[in-house]
C-alpha cells in the first residue's frame, strides 16, 4: 500500500532543509497546511453530503429533487451556501448574546475535532494519540453543551424544549457508542486509530469478520446509536418541525444556522467514518487471500477505499432516515436505556470471553 | 503555550465568579476545564486530558446545567448576586490559605526535580490500565472498586428520590 508518510516527510524535509527554516516556523507552517486541508475537506464533504441527502431523499419519495440549478441540479448546494453566507445575523430580544454566539462554535469545534481523527490513508491520520478512540468520544461530547446553549441562549420556548430533548438524547446514546467502540478495542488491543486500522489489513481481517457475532452486534448497535447521536433518522426529535418549529437552532440565521447544518451532516459522515474505521477496516482494501486479486485491490489507493466504505455507510443511514417514521421522545429513551445499553454490556462480556479463549479468527 | 493557557484559565475563572447570569458562569467554567485539559496535553498526559474533557467538560458541566434547569426560570432571572465587602475579605482569606498550602506542598515535595529526571514520554495505555485494575503494590483495584460501589449507591439513591410510588388503591 502507498504510505502517505512519504509525502509528509518530504514536505517536512523541504521546509527544514531546502528552505532552512527553524523548528518553530516549519511546525507552524505544517500545522497551518494540515488545518487548511482539514477545513477544505470538511467543507467539500459537507457540500457533497447535502447534495446526496437531497437526491437520496427525493428518490425515496419518488421525486426528482433539485433539478433547476445547473445540470441535474449540481449547483443547488453552492447557491444555498452563497445565500447563507450573505444573510444577516440578527439577535433575538432579551437573548443571552454571548451564549448565542458561542454555541455554534462549540458544535462546530466538536464536529471538526472528531473529523480530524479519521484515518484517510496509510499514514494519513491527522490526530493519532495513543488514547485515540477515548479522546474521540471525549471530543464529541462537547457538542452537547453547544446544543444546549443554543436553545437556552436564543430565548425561545421551543428552543429550550428542543435543546432539552437533544441533550438528553445525545447523553444517553453516547453510552452505547462508547461501549461499542470499547468492544472493538478489546479485539484489537489498541486504542490508537492507526493501530486499529493496521490490525485489520490482510485477508478477512476486518473486525466485523474477525469478531463474528459480537462484532456484528456492536456494528449494528453502533449504527443505531450513531444515527441518534447525529440527531437524524427516526431519532430527529430535537428538530421535530411539526411541534417545535425547527428545534434548538430556530432563532439562528446566516452562518449561525449554517454551522449547525454543516455539523449535522458532518456528524453523519464522522459516524460512518468511525464505523468504517473500527469495524470495516478503514483504508484497508478488500483482500480475500488470493494473491492475484489482492495485489490488484492493493493498487487502489486507501483514500478511495475509505471514502467508498464511508459513503456506503452514509447511504445506509440515509436509507434508514427516509424509511422509518419518527419515534416519540420516551420511546427513544426507552430504546436506549432498556434495550441498547444492556445489549451492549452483554456484548462486551461476550467479546471479552471470545478474546480470552481465542475464539476469534 | 503555557502562558496562553494560563491566561485562558485565569480569565475564564475570574469571569465565572463575577458574571451575574448563572448559565454564563457554567459556560466560563467549561472554558476553565478546557484550559486545564490543555495543560495536561502540554504535559503529554493524553489519557488524563481525555478523561478531563469527557468527564468534566462533557459530563459535569452538563450536570450543572441540568441542575440549573431544575431550579426554574423565574427564580433564575431574579437571582442577582451582589459583591459585598465581608464576602470579598472572606474570599481573599480563603484564597491566601489555598496559595500558602500549594506553595508549602510545592516546596516540601521536590516535584520539579523528580519530574525532570523522568523524560516526558507518553504513558502507554496498557500501563495505565494495569495500574488501575491490578492488585499488586502501587496498583489501584481497591479504590477503583470502592468508587464504583459508591457510585452505584448514588444511582440507587437518586432513583429512590426521583421515583414516584404508584398510589395503592
UniProtKB/TrEMBL annotation, chain A:
Pfam families: NADHdh
Localization in the cell: Cell membrane; Membrane
GO-annotated molecular function: oxidoreductase activity
Top EC category: translocase
Signal sequence annotation: none
Reactions mediated catalytically: a quinone + NADH + 5 H(+)(in) = a quinol + NAD(+) + 4 H(+)(out)
Membrane protein topology class: Multi-pass membrane protein
Chain segments annotated as transmembrane: 24-51, 98-120, 132-154, 166-187, 207-225, 265-284, 296-318, 339-359
Record key words, sorted: Cell membrane, Membrane, NAD, Oxidoreductase, Quinone, Translocase, Transmembrane, Transmembrane helix, Ubiquinone
Domain of life (superkingdom): Bacteria
Main function: NDH-1 shuttles electrons from NADH, via FMN and iron-sulfur (Fe-S) centers, to quinones in the respiratory chain. The immediate electron acceptor for the enzyme in this species is believed to be ubiquinone. Couples the redox reaction to proton translocation (for every two electrons transferred, four hydrogen ions are translocated across the cytoplasmic membrane), and thus conserves the redox energy in a proton gradient. This subunit may bind ubiquinone.
Family named by the database record: Belongs to the complex I subunit 1 family.
Complex and partners: NDH-1 is composed of 14 different subunits. Subunits NuoA, H, J, K, L, M, N constitute the membrane sector of the complex.
Protein name: NADH-quinone oxidoreductase subunit H
Species the sequence originates in: Xylanibacter muris
Gene designation per UniProt: nuoH
